[in-house]
Design a protein that fits this description.
This protein is of the alpha/beta class. 34% of the residues lie in helices and 21% in strands. The chain contains eight helices and eleven strands.
């Protein structure tokens, strides 16, 4: 398997870690992982894409990256500034954007709002956040306030051994132990004689605000860059309402593939890589 190079970047006042593959690749790619994952979630897929110069970021509060300051929050739209800062640091005026789950949502928002920077989108089992009704805004903000005020009493799970963490991650995320081990190796640290996660506990609290269906529709309507949306049959592809909504958008195509939510880390990675390579070749010809 192709080895990745470890990178760090000083972006927007934080030190953010990343993994890099294929520095001589034709396509410049920024890859964004899912919620409570880290850059290692691309360890299986990235080596299969030799034409892609991939920088997979540990988003703030995840993996080996800094946590945000005490007064900051983890809104998905705040990550857009970090992605653009990374592209600027790399000297990439335009780039391809890969995203899985929460990372796919971030990618969609950036592709919709900054099409002059984003050449294309690859979205892996995610596209937009769960919508809320406008009348739920007060209760949503109330949850955010309560859960953040109670954080000092909240304790993240800890484990006697890294192997125990792998088993827990495999069970909770419904992924193989081999895939879980990649996430755990990058996202676990020793605390005395126990092991705990490196992610910021604030990531487990409610968002202060969420987008309504009208907000989401605005972003989807604004999408003008090429998009490859791959859904897992046992992941987001298992939600018939989502498929109905996607089918109603004539400008957006999607494909269903076997597997669960982390299918890009499992045996489906080779098929995904082939689809990605064909997609990028077509985008480049266009």
């Amino acid at each position: 398997m192709t080895m990745a190079l470890e990178r760090t970047f000083q972006l927007n006042g934080y030190c953010l870690a990343a993994k890099e593959w294929h520095a001589d690749g034709q396509f410049k790619v920024i890859a964004l992982h899912g919620w409570l994952d880290n850059a290692a979630s691309f360890d299986v897929l990235a080596p299969l894409l030799p034409d892609c110069h991939i920088i997979a970021l540990d988003l703030p509060g995840h993996g080996r990256s800094d946590h945000k300051s005490a007064q900051a929050n983890y809104n998905i739209w705040d990550d857009l500034l970090d992605v653009l800062a990374l592209a600027d640091a790399l000297g990439w005026e335009t780039f391809q954007l890969f995203g899985h789950s929460r990372g796919a949502i971030i990618a969609m928002l950036l592709g919709a709002t900054c099409p002059e920077r984003v050449a294309s989108l690859l979205l892996l089992d995610g596209i937009w956040p769960i919508a809320v009704e406008a009348e739920e805004a007060a209760s949503q903000l109330s949850r955010f306030i309560q859960e953040n005020r109670q954080l000092k009493q909240k304790k993240l799970p800890d484990y006697a051994t890294p192997g125990d963490a792998v088993l827990a991650r495999s069970r909770n995320a419904r992924i193989s132990e081999q895939a879980a081990a990649l996430i755990v190796e990058r996202g676990l640290h020793a605390q005395g004689e126990r092991y705990s996660w490196t992610f910021d506990p604030r990531l487990t609290t409610a968002s202060a605000f969420k987008l309504t269906r009208e907000h989401i529709q605005s972003f989807v309507t604004a999408l003008s860059v090429p998009v490859l949306l791959l859904l897992a049959e046992e992941g987001m592809g298992g939600y018939s309402q989502l498929l109905d909504e996607l089918s109603a958008i004539s400008s957006l195509d999607y494909q269903l593939l076997p597997g669960s939510h982390h299918f890009h880390m499992e045996e489906q990675a080779a098929a995904i890589a082939a689809l990605v390579a064909a997609f990028l070749a077509g985008v480049n010809q266009g």
